[in-house]
Amino acid sequence: MAIESASGIFIFPIFQPPLFCIFSALHLHFSKFRKNPTFGTMEKQENNQTDQAREIKKELQRFAYAVSHDLQGPLRIVNGYVKIAQRQLADSDNEELKEYIGMAVEGVKQMEAYLADLLAYSRVMHTEIEPKTIKLSNLIEVVKYGLREEIETSEALINLEGIPETIEGSKDLIKQLFFHLIGNAIKFRKEGKKPVISISGTQYDGGWSFEISDNGIGIPENSFDRIFELFQQLHPKDKYPGNGVGLAICKKIVEMHGGTIGVRSGDGSTIFFTLPG
C-alpha cells in the first residue's frame, strides 16, 4: 500500500511483516514446483518429492538464518543514519518530512524486531536434539524466575498438578517451550483480572501429555491453526506487543521432540502438547 504525499513522494509503510511476505512467496513457488509431475512411476515420484521437500526445508532453514543474521549489520547502519537525520530535523519547520523520517525510524525498529525473532526461530531449527533427563519442577522454577517481573506485575498465580518428576529432551528447548507458553498465558490476560495458570501432566504409553490452561481472553476457534504459524497475530500490537513468533517456536520445539501441539478455548485457553517420557 503506497501513500502519496503532497510533494509527490511515495511512502510505503510496513503494515505486513516483510519477511513473512518473502516466505509466503517462497512457499507458493516451491509448492507449485513439488506438484509438477515430472517423474516416471508413482513410487519414484513420491520418493523424489520426499527428497525434494527435505532439501527445500533445509534451504529454507539456511535462508532464514542467513536473512535474520546477515541483515542485522546493514540494518543497524540504516538505523544510525535515519536517527541522525531525525535529530537534524528536530528544529525544522517541515512537519511532513519529520513525519516521514519518524515512519522510517519506526519501520527500521519493526524490522529489527522481526529479524531478532526470525533469528530465534532459526536457532531453534538448527538445534541438534541431545536428549537428557530434565527435572521438570526445577526447570519451571527457572522459567518463573525469568518471568518474575511479569508475574509480579500481573499478580499471576501458577499451579502445578500431576507433572512428572523428570522428562527426556533438550533442556534449552524445553525451557523455551514453557517460557513462551507461560509468558503468553500472562500476557493475554483479561483486563483487571489476575492470571490463573494451571500446568498439568498425564502419563501415556511412551511419554507425557501436558496442558497449560489460563483464564485469559481466549482464542477464536477459526484461529486455532493460525496461531502456530510464523508472524501470525490475532490482536493489536499496541495492546499485546509481539510479532507472533512464540507459538511457532513452541510448535517447532514440540515437533522436534516427536510430539504434537494444539489448542482449545472457552473461558480462557488451553495449550496441550506431548513430550517423550
Q: Give the spatial strand order of the biggest sheet.
A: 4-6-7-9-8
| Percentage of β-strand residues | 15-25%
CATH top level label of the largest domain:
Alpha Beta
Q: What is the rounded distance between the termini?
A: 50 Å
* Oligomeric nature of the chains: single chain
Number of helices: 8
User: Any guess at the CATH architecture of the largest domain?
Assistant: 2-Layer Sandwich
Percent range of helical residues:
40-55%
On the 0 to 100 scale, the average pLDDT is: 79
- Return Rg in Å: 22 Å
CATH-defined superfamily of the largest domain: Histidine kinase-like ATPase, C-terminal domain
How is this structure best described in words?
The protein folds into two domains: 3-125, no CATH class; 132-276, 2-Layer Sandwich (Heat Shock Protein 90), CATH 3.30.565. The chain has eight helices and nine strands. The chain has helices at residues 18-34, 42-70, 72-88, 95-125, 136-146, 148-154, 171-187, 246-256; strands at 3-4, 10-11, 132-135, 157-161, 166-169, 196-204, 207-213, 261-266, 268-276. Helix 3 packs antiparallel against helix 4 (95-125) and helix 4 packs parallel to helix 8. The termini are far apart.
Helices, strands, pairings?
Blueprint lengths: L2 E2 L5 E2 L6 H17 L7 H29 L1 H17 L6 H31 L6 E4 H11 L1 H7 L2 E5 L4 E4 L1 H17 L8 E9 L2 E7 L32 H11 L4 E6 L1 E9 L1
Parallel strand pairs: 4-6
Antiparallel strand pairs: 1-2, 3-5, 6-7, 7-9, 8-9
Helix pairs in contact: 2-4, 3-4, 4-8, 5-7, 7-8
